[in-house]
Model the fold of this input.
Amino acid sequence: MAQYSKKHAHKGLTEELPKLEVLPNQFKGYKIAIVIPEYTSLCPRSGLPDAGTITIEYEPDAFFVELKSLKYYILGYRNLGIFYENAVNRILKDFVKTVKPRWALVRGEFNPRGGMKSTVEARYPRPRK
Done:
């Protein structure tokens, strides 16, 4: 197995992925929850496949995400080497940049590997220090 390096730590954060698209929102004060049970990517260190469920919850403001574009965006991770933590935080960053929600939460619940199951959450706005 490859030695862990700074290159591994940043893997998957800048590679190009399919673009998210938005549609105009006509309503206020409601929540959308999208569950994506077939998320897959590759471990950047071992090259082994990772799989899990990504859940995106958000309150739309002027826009909401177009689901077909979200599907292709998530499929873009399939052959991407990226750690769980990087994937969840990148999905949140890209989602917020495009959709501009009032608030958002991205949760990754990753299938057990090596006898361990991981859950990673990232939210917008980010908690203050």
User: Anything to note?
Assistant: The longest strand covers residues 32-42. Strands lie at 22-24, 32-42, 49-59, 63-65, 103-113, 116-124. DSSP finds three helices and six strands in the chain. The domain at 21-110 is CATH 3.30.1130.10 (GTP Cyclohydrolase I, domain 2).
